[in-house]
Amino acid sequence: MTRAPTPDTLLTELPFVQVLPDEYAILESDGVLMANLQASIGICIYDAVFEPGALLHLKALPDKSVEIELTDVVLAGDLLLLEQALAALRATAPRAQYWQGKILTHCPSHDPALSAIAQSVADFAADWLADAGIQIVDRQMLEGRRARVQFRPQMGQLRTASIHD
Predict the structure, then answer these.
(1) Which of 74, 113, 157, 162 makes an SS bond possible with 144, Cβ 3.0 to 4.6 Å?
(2) Between the CA of residue 141 and those of 23, 42, 74, 119, what are the distances in Å?
(3) Quick one: DSSP state of residue 154?
(4) What global pTM score does this model have?
(5) Which domains does the chain have, with CATH numbers?
């Protein structure tokens, strides 16, 4: 007699794809996209009916010692990556029409200036995605030195863990 697999055992049998800062990855079939957020933003996009999904990992915060003003020039790289990822994702599922998104913002300190910058970049991404027809269903602010994100697009499943080492 064999036991039915549990969700945790199924997850360990799936392929994992690591997404580095300022990159994105797309899965066309079942699997898990992973990112270690550190002063960055993870954007998960998936269709609620079809299987494809993507994880974008945007580097959101500068070094603490650098003053930054969020301008169109500063956000241009993020916008380009968002556009490329969404075009590639839509090409993998041209019939998909129930796009949803989840935005995870990581700020490693309680510095109000850094938190404001991270939140501004997340707001920019949320507004852009909404304009592109993607419903934002979840937004989270993560703390700690790092945050581990695992996203399974086929199920719309998201796991996060703050790492305080």
Answers:
(1) 162
(2) 20, 11, 22, 8
(3) G
(4) 0.84
(5) 16-71+104-163 (3.30.1330.200)
| Residue whose tokens read 């064999």 | 2
**Helix (H/G/I), strand (E/B), else coil: 24:** strand
Query: How many CA atoms lie within 13 Å of 46's alpha carbon, on the beta-carbon side?
Result: 27
Query: Torsions phi, psi of 80, nearest 5?
Result: -60, -45
Average pLDDT of the segment spanning 139-144: 87
- 68 half-sphere exposure, CB direction, 13 A CA radius: 21
* Of 91, 72, 31, 73, nearest in space to 55 by CA: 31
Residue 137: the pLDDT is 96
The residues, ordered by sequence, that sit 6+ positions from 12 with a Cβ below 8 Å of its Cβ are none
CB 45 within 8 A of CB 26: no
Q: Identify whether the C-beta of residue 22 lies closer than 8 Å to the C-beta of residue 77.
A: yes
**Nearest Cα residue to 100 out of 138, 127, 128, 131:** 138
